[in-house]
Design brief:
The complex is a heterodimer of chains A (about 500) and B (about 170).
Chain A (H helix, E strand, L loop, with lengths): L1 H14 L2 H19 L5 H8 L8 H26 L8 H12 L3 H34 L4 H18 L4 H16 L1 E2 L6 E2 L13 H20 L12 H10 L4 H16 L4 H15 L12 H16 L1 H7 L5 H12 L8 H4 L1 H32 L4 H20 L2 H19 L5 H24 L10 H14 L1 H16 L1
Helix pairs in contact in A: 1-17, 2-4, 2-17, 3-4, 3-9, 3-15, 3-18, 4-5, 4-6, 4-13, 4-15, 4-17, 5-6, 5-13, 6-10, 6-11, 6-13, 6-14, 6-17, 7-8, 7-20, 7-21, 8-20, 9-18, 9-19, 11-12, 11-13, 12-13, 18-19
Chain B lengths: L14 H26 L3 E2 L2 E2 L3 H24 L9 H24 L1 H17 L3 H22 L8 H6 L2
Antiparallel strand pairs in B: 1-2
Helix pairs in contact in B: 1-2, 3-4, 4-5
Classes of the chains: A mainly alpha (about 500), B mainly alpha (about 170).
């Protein structure tokens, strides 16, 4: 514990080097722009900018990329409040009360509330990470292949059980990810598989290409279909408004705290920021005395989803750092980055790469402070980006996606694949197939398979190895509960409903 | 830019048929996966499960869930719900076509020239800007990208005949 605090302060020293501070500010600004633009979000934005970091040291690279992520989380709120367009899926719930507030001329209050509560959500999650991550990591150091597989099993089962999409669509989408991930060289036998003689498929499908296509191109196509016309409110934010709102905010500490807990819980289990923001909004509405006024421009309706979304987005990095299991697509892209920089994500990171881990955690604290200052002072500038017509910004986003896809492997075939993924992403999204499990499955497929096959090898093919000791058995059981959660909930409520009727 | 018609007549492909199409395509993907896994071998060998073992069961699960999704799609949608209106799909296609031409043009013309052409096409087609504005944006953006990527971050992008001729 004491040692961790020492490490954290060392991390602060690393982050405060002038070069890293510049990268941090650059990252936040790029992140907010990404968050504001339709079609660019945390996951694909970072995927596109990842190649820029190949020549940097891993610590500087992760500082810049994680700051892009914080920036994107902040940026989503700007478009929700001013334009009623959620820049990110997790800011949809923010539009419910944020936009009405802006229409009543209270855009400044709404934005200040959104940014400040995002900040507190993130801060809460970072403290959770600081305290929990080293513990989880030291615990996970003992894991063998069956335990490692069971953690993946739990992660993927919670996707099926907790997502609001139809369960078999979630399963299908996830398994497509695993199937795509298994194309190419089999890591255990060195044999080629599923390539059907195409040399382009030898190295398999890279998930970064999938992320850029599914989220980037797919989102642009959705935007075109909806035919957005950006007619927004003007942002007037001045120190007086900020201070007034800050004076008002402590009243909602309970909403805020509850949203923090919901956010962290949803972020660590890979349900993600989007359901967290909706859930937190829903609960705040049910609990609040003025619940029926929600939706007409109540400041609490901005605080709840923003806090939860930011807490979830930040805490999604906890399982990524300590177990090597990302809690969100964006965390998955960061994990991909670690692999490219030659680091092995997982518990060993805390032992072998102290500088890197604590530099990242320290940059979470500082990045969010810097982010809050930047967004509070520069809102009108960022809002102006959205006033650029889509017929100009649209092709530029397309070009950025293509450059991002190309630079991953310097391969023009990847650009074509990106387009294929883009059209597929549009169709899948329109037919309610969730995309996040697909992406996570491509990333984790190799490792999950390795864990599975190594366990089976040790047990001579018997599945009982996954219940062979208390630890692996209980993680698998938790996974099964998560998988069948909707059925369990259904059965429970039916059991209780019967005596009443 | 927005072409959203306010006419009461709404027409377009039904959600049901698109849903069924997507499900069948996924099932086809599963069949390809199964075929490929069988080629690689799905049984056990001396070194444990063979290369096709894992993808075989994965593809099997995709096939089974596609079956269930297909039944659900037939049951849940009457065929009257629209997937999207034709005018909306026209908007989508108006992006897909130039973008597809663009991704195939990149290896031939290079990233910079094809990007400039893409931006110009969009602005002229969808935005109806006059040529002066179109040319300005379509030239300035690739130049900025060039400076940012090739000069600052030293990341080379594909080049074509124009860059050869300019000697870059």
């Amino acid at each position: 514990m004491i040692e961790d605090i020492g490490n954290l302060f060392h991390g602060f020293a690393v982050v405060l080097q002038p070069y890293n501070v510049v990268l941090m500010v650059l990252g936040i600004v790029l992140g907010v722009i990404i968050g504001v633009l339709p079609g660019l979000g945390g996951a694909n934005g970072i995927a596109i900018l990842l190649p820029l970091t190949f020549s940097m040291s891993p610590t500087s690279a992760i500082i810049m990329l994680s700051c892009i992520y914080w920036g994107a989380l902040f940026g989503g709120a700007i478009t929700s409040v001013l334009f009623n367009i959620p820049g990110e899926p997790w800011s949809v719930a923010t539009t419910f009360d944020g936009y009405p507030m802006a229409q009543q001329g209270k855009a400044g209050e709404a934005l200040t509330a959104a940014f400040t509560s995002s900040f507190f959500g993130a801060l809460f999650a970072v403290i959770v990470i600081t305290l929990l991550a080293p513990l989880v990591a030291s615990f996970a150091l003992e894991f063998g292949p069956p335990e490692i597989f069971s953690v993946y099993f739990l992660a993927f089962c919670s996707f099926v059980g907790l997502s609001k999409e139809p369960p078999f669509k979630t399963v299908a989408s996830m398994m497509i990810g695993f199937a795509l991930g298994s194309v190419g060289l089999d890591q255990m036998t060195g044999q080629l598989r599923l390539t059907f003689g195409f040399p382009e498929l030898l190295s398999g499908f890279d998930f970064l290409i999938a992320v850029i296509g599914l989220f980037g191109i797919g989102e642009i196509l959705l935007t075109m279909e909806e035919g957005l016309n950006f007619r927004g409110n003007t942002a007037k934010i001045n120190p007086k408004v900020v201070l007034q709102t800050w004076a008002e905010l402590p009243r909602y500490w309970m909403t805020s705290l509850r949203s923090c807990v919901i956010g962290c819980w949803m972020g660590i289990s890979p349900a993600g920021a989007t359901p967290a923001s909706f859930m937190s909004y829903g609960i705040a509405k049910r609990v609040a005395k003025n619940g029926n006024k929600f939706g007409t421009g109540v400041i609490e309706g901005v605080v709840a989803p923003e806090t939860a979304a930011h807490a979830a987005g930040t805490s999604a990095l906890l399982p990524m750092l300590s177990l090597g299991v990302p809690g969100s697509p964006t965390a998955a892209v960061l994990l991909g980055g670690l692999l490219i920089w030659g680091l092995q994500p997982g518990p060993l990171l805390f032992v072998e790469q102290k500088d890197f881990v604590w530099g990242l955690i320290a940059s979470m604290y500082l990045g969010n402070v810097v982010g809050l200052i930047i967004v509070l002072t520069c809102v009108p500038l960022f809002a102006a980006i959205l006033r650029v017509p889509f017929s100009i910004i649209g092709p530029i986003i397309l070009v950025m996606c293509a450059i991002g896809a190309y630079t991953v492997h310097n391969n023009t075939f990847d650009v074509v694949m990106m387009m294929v993924f883009g059209v597929a992403g549009y169709l899948l999204k329109k037919t309610d197939y969730p995309l996040a499990p697909l992406v996570l499955a491509i990333v984790l497929g190799d490792k999950a398979e390795e864990g599975f096959r190594q366990s089976l090898l040790a047990s001579q093919g018997s599945l009982s190895v996954f219940f062979s000791n208390g630890l692996v058995g209980s993680i698998m059981a938790l996974g099964l509960i998560a998988l069948f959660w909707p059925l369990i909930q259904d059965g429970w409520s039916r059991l209780h409903a019967r005596p009443a009727t | 830019m927005s072409e959203s018609s306010h006419s009461s007549r709404r027409a377009g492909p039904s959600h049901r048929s698109v849903e069924i199409g997507v499900t069948l395509s996924i099932a086809l993907l599963a069949l390809i996966g199964i075929a490929g896994s069988l080629q690689a071998g799905i049984g056990w060998a001396a070194e444990g499960p063979r290369a096709g073992f894992f993808p075989f069961y994965i593809s099997l699960i995709i096939l089974i869930s596609s079956g269930i999704n297909l039944v659900n799609a037939m049951r849940d949608f009457s065929g009257r719900e629209l997937f999207a209106e034709w005018s909306q799909l026209r908007q989508v296609v108006s992006v897909v076509i130039p973008a597809t031409i663009y991704v195939f043009a990149v290896p031939v013309l290079g990233m910079y020239v094809s990007s400039g052409l893409l931006i110009a096409a969009f602005m002229k087609w969808l935005g109806r800007y006059n040529w002066l504005v179109v040319l300005a944006v379509a030239i300035v953006v690739p130049v900025i990208i060039f400076i940012f990527f090739e000069r600052w971050f030293l990341v080379p992008l594909p080049k074509g005949p124009l860059e050869d001729w300019l000697g870059l």
